[in-house]
C-alpha cells in the first residue's frame, strides 16, 4: 500500500516519452511508410485518409467537443475545394499561396453566415437547418454551370503550385505535403481543444444551462467553434481539390456530410485522434471491401455504423486509449515510491 | 384555369403521400422522442414488397397494399425494438444508427430486387383516366386523395375519440404522469411505432402508382418528409397534414412555374419556418 | 520496474507498427516485368451498385461473350478482365479504382466508367498517365473530342442518335415539338441534338422542359406544357418508366406522340411492366437485340444462355469496346505499348453487333449506326424493332443549355 506521492515535474525521461509515444510512433510510421508502398496505396489511400481526417477532425470540433450535430458540414469542405478550382480555372490564379488562403477565407465566411442562421435553433432542428443549407449550396453548385461546372463540376485542377521552381508534385511528394499540413492542423486543433476555449466548449456540450449560469456567452462560443470548424473543413477542401483534380456538387452535399459523421462517430467523437482513426478504418475497409465484395460495400458500411453505435459506444478511439492506458499502467503501475 | 386546377390536384395527391409517410415519423418523434431517419427506407421497402406481391406474384393489389404495409411495419418495429430503444434520449446516436440502416436497407433491396427501377403499378380497378377541363387525369391520383382523406379521418378518430388515442396524447404531453397513472405506455408506444412504419409502407405502395419503385427512394423522400415535419410541426395529425399539403402544393406549383428553382424553394421555405417559427405551424400543443 | 517499462514500451511499439503496416503490406505491389507471353489485362470500371446497377449484368455479358468467341486469347496472349465498382456516379471512387487498376493491377487498357460524372473523375488521370481507355457508353456530352487523347469514344456520342431522331420526327410530319430532359449537361446534349436536327429539317421546338435529376413525378410539368405535334423525351434512370406511364395516363399518348430519345433506360423488362399500350412507341437508339445481322444473330442466343436475359444497349457498348480492343491487339500483334495501341486505333474499322464502327482519323471519335425503332411484340415479348437505319452517324456538335 503505502502513501502515493504526487510525482513532481522531474519524472524519469521515459515517463514523458510514454505520453507522446503514440504520436511519435505513428508520426514516424506515416513518414517512412511510402518507402514500402506502391504509389497507389500511398497516394490514393493514405492521402485520402489524411485529407478526410482533417475534415473529420473539423467536424469533431463542433460535434464531439461542442455537442452540435451537423448534417451540412461538407458545405465548407466543398466551398474550400470549389474556390480553389474556380480561382485556378476561371481566374487563372495559379499560385497556392493565393488560392489556399482565399479558399480558406471563403469557407470561413460561409461558416460565419451559415452558423449565424443555424445557431438560432438547436438539437434536431439544428441538424435539419444545417442539412437544408448544405443541400441549398449543392443545388446552387449544380445550377451555376458557368462558375461551378454544373453537375459535372470543375475538372483539371492541377497539384499545388508553390512557386518553387524545382518542385513539381508527384504522388509521393503530394502525400508528404498533405502529411505536413495534416500535422500542422492536428497541432493547431490540439492547442484549441486543450485551451480554456476548448474546455468551455466541452462544458457547453455537457451542460449548457450551467455554463450560461456561470456567465459564459454560450451562443458566442458555439458560433466561434462553428466558424473554426468551417475553416479547417475548408483546408481539407483545398487539399481535396488538388488531390482529386475534380470538385463536384457531391462534395457539398449530405452524402459527404454524413460520411464525415461516420468517420467521427466510428473513430470516437470528443477526441482528436478519433476522427483520424475513423477515417483510416472506414477508408481502409472500403478498399478491402472493394477487393472482395464491391456490391455489398454500402451494406458493410451501414452495418459497421450500427455496430459501432450500439456496442462501441464512443467509437474506437476511447477503447484504444483505454488499452494504451492499461499498457502504461502495467509498466508504470506503481510509480508510487 | 386548367393549369391551376391540375396543379392543385397534383399538389394535393402528392401531399397525401407525404402525409402518410410523415405521420409515422411525427408521432414517434412526438411520443417517443425517437428520430428514425430510416423511415424513408421503410417507404421503399413497403413499395418493393408491394411490387413483388402485385406484379411478380400477380396477386390482388389490395393484398399487396396490406402486405407491403405490414412488411414495412415489421422492419420498422425490428429496428426500434432491437436497436433504437437502447438509445433512449441519445438523438445523435439515433441519427447515426438510422442513417446506417438506410444504407443497409437500400443495399439489401439491391440484393433482393436488383437495380432496375420498377415501373409505376396501379390496381386494375383504378387504372384509367377521366376527362377534366379538356385533358385527362388519372383515376388513381384522385383515389390517392380519397384514400388519404379516409386515413386522415380514421387517424383523427383514433386520436381524439378512442382511449388509445387519449393515452397517446397524454403520453406526449406528460410521460411520467401517464405512466404514473398505471397506463402501459410501452405497449402503446410500440403499437404507434408499428403503425407509423405501416403507414410509411402503405405510402410507398400508393406512391408507387406515381413514382414507381427504385433504390433512391430511401433518401429522396426522407428529405421531403423532414421538410414537412419542420413546416407542419411535430406530434399532431393536423400539423403533418398541413405541412404535407403546403409542401405538396408548393412543389406542384413551383415546378410548373419555375422548374429550375423548385428545389431551392423548398429548402428556403424550410429555413424560413425554422427561423421564424421553429416548432412548425401546428405542432402538438397548439 | 524500469526494465519492465521499457519492455512494455518496446512491445507496444512493435505491436502498433505491425498493426499499422500489415494491412498495407497486403496492397504492396511487386514490380512487374512484362514479357509478351504474360496475359493482357483489361481493367473495367462498372456500376455494380447505385442507380445504374442494372447495366452491370449486361456489361459483363457483353464483354464475356466477345471474349468467349475468341477463347479469351488474342495474338497468342491470354486475356484477363478485372472489374471494379464506381457506385454508378461516384467520381472519387471511379478515380480511385482507376488508379488501383493501373498501378496495383497493372492493367494494359481500361474500359469505362459508364456515367459521365464518373468518367470525368478519371479523365485527367487517364490523359496524364497515358492509359488507352475504351469508353463504355456515349461520350458526346463532353467537350474537346477533337484531340486524340487517351480516351476513345468507342460507342459514339449522344447527340449522334438524337440528332437523327429530330430529322426523323420532321419526316413523320411533325412540325412542332416539346422536349423534356434532365437539367444537366447530358440532358442538354441529348435534347440539344434533337432540337438541332428537328430545327434544321424545318421544324420548330416550341418549348424545352428541364427536370431535376431523379424526378419521377412529371405531372407538375404537364400543367405548363405547351401543346405541340410531338414530345421528345430524354432521361436516364427511374424517371423514364414513370414518364411513359404518366404520359399515357394524362391522355397525351395519342394527341402528342412520344419519341424516346434514348432507350437505355426503357429496357425490355420495363416495357413488359408498362404493358401493351407501349406498342407503337418510337425510340432512337444504337442497339436493340432484334437487329438482324449474322453477328447479332449469333450473339443474342449466346448472351441469353449466359445471363438469362435479352441483351440491352449496355451489352452492345461493352461488346463493341471489347471488339475494338481485340482488333487493336490483332493489329499490334500483342504489343501493349500505349502509343502503339493508340496508333492502331486511329482509322480502325470494326464490325459490331449493330454494324460497322469506324474511328475517324485524328479524333478520338467513332462513327456508329443509329436507329429509329418502334416497340412491337417480338417472340412474344415487347421489344424495339428497327424501322430506319442511319449509317455512320457523327456527333453534330456540343450543346449547352439554351
- Stretches with pLDDT under 50, minimum 5 residues of chain A: none
Rounded radius of gyration of chain A (Å): 21 Å
Q: In the CATH hierarchy, what is the class of the largest domain in chain C?
A: Alpha Beta
Number of strands of chain C: 15
Alpha-beta classification of chain C: alpha/beta
Low-confidence stretches of chain C: 20-35
| Proportion in β-strands of chain A | under 5%
Morphology call of chain A: globular
Describe the oligomeric state of these chains in a short phrase: heterotrimer
CATH superfamily of the largest domain in chain C: Response regulator
Main pleated sheet of chain A: 2 strands, antiparallel
- Would you give the CATH topology of the largest domain in chain C? Rossmann fold
Domain unit count of chain C: 2
Please name the two chains that share the biggest interface, counting residues whose Cβ lies under 8 Å from a Cβ on the partner chain: A-C, 49 and 51 residues
Query: How many DSSP E strands of chain A?
Result: 2
Ends distance of chain C? 79 Å
Net shape of chain C: globular
Architecture (CATH level 2) name of the largest domain in chain C: 3-Layer(aba) Sandwich
Helix content of chain A: over 70%
- The H-and-E topology of chain A, N to C, reads as HHHHHHEHHHHEHHHH
Q: What's the helix-strand series of chain C? A: HEHEEHEHEEHEHEHEHHEHEHHHEEEE
Verbal overview:
The complex is a heterotrimer of chains A (337), B (286) and C (402). With 337 residues, chain A is mostly helical. Chain A is built from 14 helices and two strands. Chain A has a two-stranded antiparallel sheet with strand order 1-2. By secondary structure, chain B is an all-alpha fold. Chain B has one domain. Chain B has a two-stranded antiparallel sheet. The radius of gyration of chain B is 19 Å and the shape is globular. Chain C has two domains: 190 residues, Response regulator (Rossmann fold, 3-Layer(aba) Sandwich); 149 residues, 3-Layer(aba) Sandwich (Rossmann fold), CATH 3.40.50.2300. Chain C is 42% helix and 21% strand. In chain C, the strands form two sheets. In chain C, strands 7, 8, 9, 10, 11, 12, 13, 14 and 15 form a nine-stranded mixed beta sheet that branches. Chain C has a six-stranded mixed beta sheet with strand order 2-3-1-4-5-6, with helices on both faces. In chain C, helix 2 runs parallel beside helix 12, helix 3 packs parallel to helix 4 and helix 5 packs parallel to helix 6. The relative contact order of chain C is 0.14.
Amino acid at each position: 500500500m503505502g502513501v502515493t506521492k504526487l510525482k513532481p515535474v522531474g519524472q524519469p525521461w521515459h515517463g514523458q516519452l510514454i505520453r507522446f509515444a503514440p504520436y511519435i510512433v505513428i508520426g514516424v510510421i506515416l513518414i517512412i511508410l511510402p518507402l514500402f508502398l506502391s504509389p497507389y496505396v500511398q497516394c490514393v489511400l493514405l492521402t485520402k485518409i489524411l485529407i478526410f481526417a482533417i475534415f473529420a477532425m473539423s467536424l469533431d470540433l463542433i460535434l464531439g467537443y461542442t455537442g452540435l450535430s451537423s448534417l451540412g458540414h461538407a458545405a465548407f469542405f466543398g466551398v474550400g475545394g470549389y474556390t480553389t478550382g474556380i480561382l485556378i480555372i476561371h481566374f487563372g490564379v495559379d499560385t497556392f499561396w493565393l488560392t489556399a488562403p482565399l479558399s480558406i477565407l471563403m469557407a470561413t465566411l460561409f461558416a460565419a453566415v451559415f452558423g449565424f442562421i443555424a445557431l438560432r435553433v438547436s438539437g434536431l432542428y439544428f441538424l435539419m437547418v444545417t442539412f437544408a443549407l448544405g443541400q441549398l449550396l449543392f443545388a446552387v453548385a449544380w445550377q451555376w454551370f458557368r462558375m461551378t461546372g454544373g453537375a459535372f463540376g470543375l475538372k483539371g485542377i492541377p497539384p499545388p503550385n508553390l512557386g518553387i521552381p524545382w518542385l513539381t508534385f508527384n504522388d509521393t511528394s503530394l502525400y508528404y505535403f498533405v502529411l505536413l499540413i495534416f500535422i500542422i492542423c492536428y497541432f493547431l486543433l490540439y492547442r484549441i481543444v486543450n485551451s480554456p476555449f476548448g474546455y468551455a466548449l466541452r462544458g457547453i456540450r455537457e451542460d449548457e444551462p450551467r455554463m450560461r449560469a456561470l456567465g459564459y456567452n454560450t451562443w458566442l462560443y458555439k458560433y466561434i467553434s462553428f466558424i473554426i470548424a468551417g475553416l479547417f473543413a475548408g483546408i481539407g477542401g483545398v487539399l481535396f481539390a488538388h488531390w482529386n483534380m475534380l470538385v463536384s456538387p457531391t462534395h457539398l452535399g449530405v452524402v459527404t456530410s454524413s460520411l464525415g459523421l461516420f468517420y467521427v462517430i466510428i473513430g470516437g467523437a470528443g477526441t482528436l485522434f478519433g476522427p483520424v482513426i475513423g477515417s483510416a478504418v472506414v477508408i481502409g475497409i472500403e478498399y478491402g471491401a472493394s477487393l472482395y465484395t464491391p456490391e455489398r460495400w454500402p451494406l458493410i458500411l451501414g452495418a459497421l455504423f450500427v455496430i459501432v453505435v450500439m456496442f462501441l459506444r464512443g467509437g474506437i478511439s476511447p477503447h484504444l486509449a483505454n488499452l494504451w492506458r492499461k499498457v502504461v499502467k502495467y509498466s508504470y503501475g506503481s510509480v508510487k515510491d | 384555369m386548367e393549369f391551376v386546377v391540375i396543379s392543385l390536384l397534383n399538389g394535393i395527391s402528392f401531399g397525401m403521400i407525404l402525409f402518410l409517410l410523415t405521420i409515422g415519423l411525427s408521432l414517434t418523434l412526438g411520443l417517443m422522442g425517437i428520430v428514425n431517419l430510416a423511415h424513408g427506407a421503410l417507404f421503399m421497402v413497403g413499395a418493393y414488397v408491394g411490387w413483388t406481391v402485385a406484379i411478380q406474384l400477380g396477386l390482388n393489389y389490395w393484398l399487396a397494399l396490406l402486405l407491403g404495409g405490414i412488411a414495412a411495419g415489421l422492419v420498422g418495429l425490428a429496428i426500434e425494438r432491437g436497436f433504437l430503444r437502447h438509445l433512449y434520449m441519445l438523438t445523435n446516436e439515433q441519427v447515426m444508427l438510422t442513417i446506417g440502416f438506410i444504407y443497409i436497407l437500400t443495399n439489401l433491396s439491391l440484393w433482393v430486387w436488383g437495380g432496375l427501377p420498377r415501373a409505376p403499378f396501379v390496381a386494375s380497378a383504378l387504372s384509367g383516366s377521366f376527362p377534366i377541363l379538356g385533358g385527362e387525369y388519372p383515376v388513381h391520383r384522385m383515389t390517392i386523395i380519397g384514400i388519404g382523406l379516409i386515413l386522415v379521418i380514421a387517424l383523427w378518430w383514433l386520436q381524439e375519440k378512442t382511449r388509445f388515442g387519449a393515452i397517446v396524447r397524454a403520453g406526449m404531453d406528460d410521460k411520467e404522469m401517464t405512466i404514473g397513472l398505471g397506463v402501459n405506455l410501452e405497449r402503446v408506444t410500440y403499437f404507434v411505432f408499428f403503425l407509423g412504419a405501416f403507414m410509411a409502407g402503405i405510402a410507398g405502395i400508393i406512391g408507387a402508382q406515381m413514382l414507381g419503385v427504385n433504390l433512391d427512394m430511401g433518401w429522396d423522400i426522407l428529405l421531403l418528409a423532414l421538410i414537412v415535419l419542420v413546416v407542419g410541426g411535430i406530434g399532431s395529425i393536423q400539423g403533418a397534414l398541413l405541412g404535407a399539403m403546403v409542401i405538396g402544393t408548393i412543389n406542384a406549383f413551383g415546378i410548373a412555374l419555375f422548374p429550375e428553382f423548385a428545389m431551392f424553394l423548398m429548402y428556403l421555405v424550410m429555413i424560413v419556418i425554422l427561423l421564424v417559427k421553429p416548432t412548425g405551424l401546428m405542432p402538438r400543443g397548439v | 520496474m524500469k526494465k519492465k517499462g521499457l519492455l512494455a514500451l518496446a512491445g507496444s511499439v512493435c505491436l502498433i507498427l505491425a498493426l499499422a503496416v500489415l494491412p498495407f503490406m497486403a496492397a504492396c505491389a511487386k514490380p512487374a516485368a512484362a514479357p509478351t507471353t504474360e496475359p493482357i489485362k483489361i481493367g473495367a470500371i462498372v456500376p455494380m451498385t447505385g442507380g445504374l446497377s442494372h447495366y452491370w449484368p449486361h456489361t459483363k455479358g457483353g464483354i464475356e461473350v466477345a471474349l468467349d468467341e475468341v477463347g479469351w486469347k488474342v495474338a497468342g496472349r491470354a486475356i484477363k478482365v478485372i472489374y471494379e465498382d464506381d457506385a454508378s456516379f461516384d467520381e472519387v471512387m471511379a478515380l480511385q479504382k482507376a488508379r488501383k487498376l493501373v498501378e496495383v493491377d497493372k492493367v494494359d487498357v481500361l474500359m469505362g466508367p459508364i456515367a459521365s460524372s464518373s468518367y470525368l473523375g478519371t479523365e485527367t488521370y487517364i490523359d496524364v498517365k497515358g492509359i488507352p481507355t475504351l469508353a463504355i457508353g456515349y461520350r458526346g456530352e463532353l467537350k474537346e473530342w477533337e484531340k486524340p487523347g487517351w480516351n476513345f469514344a468507342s460507342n459514339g456520342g449522344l447527340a449522334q442518335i438524337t440528332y437523327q431522331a429530330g430529322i426523323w420526327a420532321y419526316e413523320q410530319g411533325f412540325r412542332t415539338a416539346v422536349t423534356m430532359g434532365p437539367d444537366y449537361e447530358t440532358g442538354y446534349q441529348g435534347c440539344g441534338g434533337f432540337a438541332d436536327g428537328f430545327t434544321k429539317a424545318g421544324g420548330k421546338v416550341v418549348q424545352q422542359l428541364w427536370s431535376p435529376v431523379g424526378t419521377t413525378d412529371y405531372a407538375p410539368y404537364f400543367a405548363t406544357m405547351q401543346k405541340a405535334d410531338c414530345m421528345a423525351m430524354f432521361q436516364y434512370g427511374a424517371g423514364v418508366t414513370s414518364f411513359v406511364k404518366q404520359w399515357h395516363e394524362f391522355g397525351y399518348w395519342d394527341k402528342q406522340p412520344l419519341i424516346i430519345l434514348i432507350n437505355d433506360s426503357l429496357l425490355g423488362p420495363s416495357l413488359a411492366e408498362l404493358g401493351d399500350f407501349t406498342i407503337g412507341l418510337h425510340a432512337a437508339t444504337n442497339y436493340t437485340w432484334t437487329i438482324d445481322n449474322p453477328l447479332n444473330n449469333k450473339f443474342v442466343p449466346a448472351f441469353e444462355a449466359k445471363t438469362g436475359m435479352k441483351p440491352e444497349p449496355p451489352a452492345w457498348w461493352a461488346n463493341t469496346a471489347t471488339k475494338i480492343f481485340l482488333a487493336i491487339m490483332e493489329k499490334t500483334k500483342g504489343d501493349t505499348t500505349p502509343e502503339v495501341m493508340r496508333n492502331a486505333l486511329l482509322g480502325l474499322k470494326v464490325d459490331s453487333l449493330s454494324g460497322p464502327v469506324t474511328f475517324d482519323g485524328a479524333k478520338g471519335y467513332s462513327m456508329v449506326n443509329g436507329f429509329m425503332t418502334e416497340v412491337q411484340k417480338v417472340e412474344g415479348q415487347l421489344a424495339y424493332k428497327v424501322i430506319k437505319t442511319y449509317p455512320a452517324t457523327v456527333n453534330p456538335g456540343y450543346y449547352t443549355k439554351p
